[in-house]
Amino acid sequence: MRARRLTLAVAVMAVAVAAATGRGSAQTAGVTAFDGARVIVGDGSAPIENATVVVANGRITGVGPAGKVQVPAGATRVNVAGKTIMPAIIDTHVHLSTTRDALIKDLRDRAYFGISAAMSLGLDPAGEPFAVRAAPPAGAARYFLAGRGITMPEQGRTDVPYWVTTDAQARKAVQEQAALKVDFIKIWVDDRDGKYQKMPPPIYTAVIDEAHKAKLRVAAHIYNLSDAKGLLTAGIDAFAHGIRDVDADDEVIGLIKARRNVVLIPNMPDRGVVADYAWLKGSLADGEVAKIQAAATDRPQAHAAWQIQARNLKKMSDAGMTITVGTDGNTAWAPHVEMADMVASGMTPMQVLVAATKNGAEFLRMTDTGTIAAGKTADLLVLDANPLDDIANTRRISAVYLKGAAVDRAATRPSR
Ligand SMILES: [Zn+2]
To answer: What's the pLDDT tens digit per position in 3-43?
Structure first.
């Protein structure tokens, strides 16, 4: 009680001193108002033209058309006329480094590219990844992980995941990961072109049951339409990939419509067409950009495989499925390509931006971020051009703010 009264007295004195010296009260110190940008809220609502966004103590305290938002006297004004502000992007399927320094660099690289959070899906052993999650580094994307995923034995592939052959082993694996407080349980249901035995329904049903008992959700790596159906029937929570073998049929669309809370991370493959990667110049080392550019050739077979997934993504989006953005692997800038691929599949730029922001935040259960609204954390992307006109404009980053603090992009440039 005594300490609290003392704190209050000090605070009152600070305001009095600030008022006397005319240097702005203690309350408005650290308040920033962004003036004049177009704001894409992230929830699918129409953009706000010539908006004002007020940020205080890392949080958005007001957003709306200029003149309709109260800006506290003494706030720092940032003129962003002509620019577009959107929520930072969320990547719900990655595989990040598993040693401390490399993992922190991965998360900082993501911040540089405007990615505010990433979930590593199933190749993360106990130890350093969990330690980084417990003590999040500053100026970095938030980190979520599924620990060790669960698969059937896959000789020659990574043995970080549990290799299980019975439902008892599968349940034990879930319990061990639940004890580590993973954010998700990951399973692989894929015979890898006939090389391995695919996880059968009794085992994945046991995983899903055990995970749900522990209040955890399960994301499945799939390839085939038939497995998508089996998993939907067994109560799966998310697909870490789309259906890749054939076009989705009416039966699977029916199953999806019956379970609209199931989330699809489309995770589009390489589109297999010529693409311009000049936008990465300056961000990555020249040699790296040259390699990426050289690989971006027309490959009809890859493009045909991409088209199957593109048609399936469009069908599932039209069916009302909840869709997020995920890129697989460990490429910090990949969401910018993924979002363009999703638009090329037939989703609208607005649908894709919602997938990348609000849907991603809800999927990762971050209630404080994902949209630009009063009360939300100020995880913002300031763009030089409007991504609703051309989704590739998400690459034209002017500034990134995480928790209200500008990411020092010059100092954290991945090519440095
Ligand atoms: Zn993956």
So the answer is: 444 444 444 444 443 333 334 344 456 899 999 999 999 99
Distance from the alpha carbon of residue 173 to the mean position of ligand 1, in angstroms: 19
**Same domain as 196, residue 92:** yes
Query: Which pair of structure tokens corresponds to residue 274?
Result: 């010529």
- Within-domain flag for 378: no
- 186, with CB counted inside 10 A (0-12, 13-18, 19+), is buried
What are the residues whose beta carbon lies below 5 Å from ligand 1 (ion)? 121, 328
Distance 327 CA to ligand 1 centre (A): 8
Cα dihedral across residues 120, 122, 125, 130: positive or negative = positive
Ligand 1 centre from 145 Cα, in Å? Answer: 12
pLDDT tens digit string along 371-409?
Answer: 999 999 999 999 999 999 999 999 999 999 999 999 999
Which two three-digit tokens encode residue 11?
Answer: 């605070």
Spell out, as residue ranges, where the chain has pLDDT lower than 70. 1-29
* C-alpha of residue 149 to centroid of ligand 1, in Å: 10
pLDDT value of position 24:
39
Distance 84 CA to ligand 1 centre (A): 31
CA of 220 to the centre of ligand 1 (A): 9
Q: Is residue 95 part of a domain?
A: yes
Within a domain: residue 345? Answer: yes
pTM listed for this prediction: 0.93
Tally of domains within the chain: 2
Residue 393 located in a structural domain: no
374 CA to middle of ligand 1, Å?
34
Same domain? For 297 and 220 the reply is yes
For residue 33, the CA-to-ligand 1 centroid distance in Å is 39
Q: Which domain holds residue 23?
A: 2-82
Residues 8 and 124 in one domain: no
CA of 186 to the centre of ligand 1 (A): 9
Instruction: Write down the pLDDT at residue 287.
Output: 95
Instruction: Please check whether residues 62 and 211 belong to one and the same domain.
Output: no
212 Cα to the center of ligand 1, angstroms: 21
**Which pLDDT score is estimated for 311?**
98
- The CATH number for 120's domain is 3.20.20.140
Beta strands in 103-242 (DSSP E): 115-120, 142-145, 150-151, 162-163, 185-188, 218-221, 238-239
**Residue 142 near residue 189 (C-beta atoms within 8 A):** no
102 and 75 share a domain?
Answer: no
